[in-house]
Amino acid sequence: MPFSKLGLNDSIVKAVTEMGYTSPTPIQEKAIPVALTGKNLMAAAQTGTGKTAGFVLPILQMLDDGTKVRAKRIRALILAPTRELAVQVEDNIKQYSKHLNLTSMAMYGGVDYEPQKRRLIEGVDILVATPGRLLDMYTKRAIHFDAIEILVLDEADRMLDMGFIEDINKIVERLPVDRQNMLFSATLSDQVRFLAKTAVRNPIEISVAKDASADPKIDQWLVTVDKDMKSALLSHLIQEQKWDQALIFIETKHGAAKLVTQLEKRGISAESFHSGRSQAVRSQLLEDFKNGKLQYLIATGVASRGIDIEQLTRVVNYDLPFPPEEYVHRIGRTGRAGASGEAISFVSRDNFKNLCMIESLLGHLITRREVEGFVPKKDVPVSVLNYKPKFKKPMTPRDSDSESSERKPRRDTRTKNNAPRGENTKSTKPKRRKPITDRDTGIPRNPRNKAKPAQ
After folding, report:
1. 8 A C-beta contact, residue 57 and residue 30
2. CA–CA distance from 395 to each of 85, 391, 398, 400 (Å)?
3. Whole-angstrom distance between the N-terminal and C-terminal Cα of the chain?
4. Predicted confidence (pLDDT) per residue in 360-402, tens digit
5. What are phi and psi of 26, to 5 degrees?
6. Residues 6+ apart with CB under 8 A from 27
7. What pTM did the predictor assign?
């Protein structure tokens, strides 16, 4: 089915065709006709299935009516969990609307307020924003919500995982009641459905059964390795198998920086990508990675969703993620739009439970493989090699006949007269009391026998 059969106008179909898309994906085919009717929609689709176009294209169609947006107002609001996803969605909006007279903007934290405030003064048709920065702008009265016609919650499950539920509720409470709502999520969990009760009332539910993790074009396999040998294994795979590019997922910012250093010592240039780096640096790293200038990008979970990198052939789970659903989103960075990809996972003893949960979610075991030519020899630190343990001088057994074993008797300080324990240490001789003498006469007197007063 071509895009023209979905009810989209010629300008939008032309832009989509120029991008190389000829037919809609299953989620687009189901979601676009429902969204064009103006009804509320709740859709479940994995990353890499084209869900962004599933809500962007109908928004462009409905807003292309010649209405001019007022100052500090927006007509369509799209909430996204991360800065990277917000930028990605706004880029897609620009591409799809290049033959339309509509404006769009991405707003997120980590950058200066002023340029965003100046842009909002003119008014924007479509705003893609993260919840935190949007609320900040609202409290500063840089934006008003009274003109919003459409609300979209993108990656709703991810926003809940990141703790945005309170911010989302505050935003929804301030929006006009008469609006269209759309919610897109990788899974329709109980938490997502609870959110939908307040934000998306009486929606039409759409679910695409196809799971990106089960795509046969993504070759998934794992290798068991000691935790201390992961960096050596990664270096071996990059150098021996001549990897041209790889997105490597790791759990912590500290771990990402450490791995970059370890790879550099082996002659491999890499960069870390995490929330601790500035937005300008992260944007430049993504651009270099997409253009092929950067071969190896070590990222935390911030890049697991919404990052569309064409022709990315390889994803590495240096650390297995938790919760297990995150695994699906990570490997979804490769094998996109029908292309083939490879997903490799390093499994050590400390994250074996994560592996069991991931395989339970997938419904099948991940193929185990051995890396040819890799010798698991640990890199022993120099400090360990030079370490000389210090032991105490061994004691000789006591021998009463040996002169060397003779010792001076230890003074028993347990009692005053060194008497053994348990015996009475008090003297049997009664103590003699010192007589009390009269100060005037000096004659001893008994205090019990007081002198009788004279008659």
Report:
1. no
2. 69, 12, 9, 15
3. 141
4. 888 889 999 988 888 765 443 434 334 343 434 444 444 434 4
5. -55, -40
6. 43, 45, 49, 50, 51, 54, 206, 208
7. 0.64
